[in-house]
Amino acid sequence: MAATLSLSNVSRVFGDTRAVDQVTLDIAPGQFVGVIGRSGAGKSTMLRLINRLIDPSEGSISFDGSEITTLKGKSLRAWRRDCAMIFQQFNLVDRLDVLTNVLIGRLAEHGFLSSMAMRFTDAERTMALQALDRLDLVPQALQRAGTLSGGQQQRVAIAKALVQQPKIMLADEPIASLDPANATLVMDGLKQINTEDGLTVLVNLHTLDTARAYCDRIIAMRAGRVFFDGTAAQLTDDVVRDIYGTEGLRDFNEAVTSTQRIAVPA
């Protein structure tokens, strides 16, 4: 059963910097949420706090009524399985084939010896192939991951996250290094999973067009705080100027112009 993700007065302090500052949010089941903001606004830190890659300095995070911030050991590993994370850098093993990379997403279900030997069941292999099929990557299943394009590697990373059978999926700038065509394929894949599986998806994005095209809800961060929380229609040009500031918006527009914009789905 789907569950709500809740952040209550969550902060993360690094020295004199409050990277995330008193953030309170409720993410309803099945939402596709885009998080935008200038570089250093706290977007990546917030996702890492949710996944427990780092711990909050203050506040609490809960999912389905269970406190996430106190989890340790086996319980923490189970949460990271349930809260799949996709990174900008793909996090694949280049020398291994695509199918094996996807199967690595199942290791949390295995004991130590089985994990070390990377022994997988036929059912798990079928699951991995089904995940690859959803992302149009079955023909590349036996190809070394390092030989794929960046867009293909990111879709392999999504398939790897998918076989974890997560309850929520986080994606930290998944299309930042991709060309527009591959960026569209990656975003289409995430949206398909969100729609067909009812899976909650939070994705950090660096382009407004992408957030407006794909996201049910957009959260904008500025200086570690939630500055805007609403729909794409509510994200007006005036609001965008307030989020990025005049200087930041100019830099943002120049960056978008210099890299072609992502194709907007019909």
From TrEMBL:
One example GO MF annotation: ABC-type phosphonate transporter activity
GO cellular component, one term: membrane
Keywords assigned by UniProt, alphabetized: ATP-binding, Cell inner membrane, Cell membrane, Membrane, Nucleotide-binding, Translocase, Transport
The keyword Phosphoprotein is assigned to this record: no
Pfam name, any one: ABC_tran
Domain ABC transporter, residue spans: 5-248
InterPro entries in the cross-refs: AAA+_ATPase, ABC_transporter-like_ATP-bd, ABC_transporter-like_CS, ABC_transpr_PhnC, MetN_ABC_transporter-like, P-loop_NTPase
UniProt-listed PANTHER family: AMINO ACID IMPORT ATP-BINDING PROTEIN, PHOSPHONATES IMPORT ATP-BINDING PROTEIN PHNC
Protein name from the UniProt record: Phosphonate ABC transporter ATP-binding protein
UniProt organism field: Marivita cryptomonadis
